[in-house]
Specification:
This protein is mainly α. It contains five helices and three strands. α1 crosses α3 and α1 crosses α4.
């Protein structure tokens, strides 16, 4: 797919909206990080392919009811990680390796959270078997939730 020939339009030729969950100050994490996480999820799950055009700062800010500065910060972080790139005068696009880099970042984040959870469980005095039992229980619950979403 060439730059500018994106899958971000519907059959009427109007831009398709990103499927980013609502960004809220009540949700965990800063607003720009919620946007970063949402775009990474769109890329890593294949809904945004390499070369896909992202909305402009202004368009995304209006869609998500956040400031231009918040969107700019999110795009700068994604660009720094090599997930997206900007082309002067054309827009912002998913990079060729965006899906791989997005997945690597999500795996690193998951690993960090799992390490933290294991540390907390160990400090609480849980045995390895108890930690594994809880992990299996949570994985089964997540599988049910994800099965219902798909």
């Amino acid at each position: 797919m060439n730059i500018g020939e994106t899958d971000r339009t519907n059959s009427a030729g109007t831009p398709r909206r990103l499927a980013i969950p609502p960004v809220s100050s009540a949700a965990p994490g800063p607003l720009y990080q919620q946007i970063v996480d949402g775009i990474k999820r769109e890329i890593s799950e294949g809904r945004l392919e390499p070369g896909a055009m992202l909305p402009s700062f202004r368009q995304l800010a209006e869609e998500l009811f956040v400031s231009l500065i918040t969107v700019k910060r999110a795009y700068e972080d994604l660009e720094r990680e090599g997930i997206i790139f900007r082309k002067q005068g054309l827009g912002t696009f998913v990079s060729e390796h965006g899906a791989d880099r997005s997945r690597e970042a999500k795996v690193a984040q998951a690993r960090s959270l799992i390490e933290q959870a294991i540390r907390e469980a160990s400090e609480a005095g849980l045995s390895e078997d108890e930690i594994l039992a809880i992990t299996h229980e949570l994985l089964e619950r997540e599988a049910l939730i994800w099965g219902q979403r798909r």
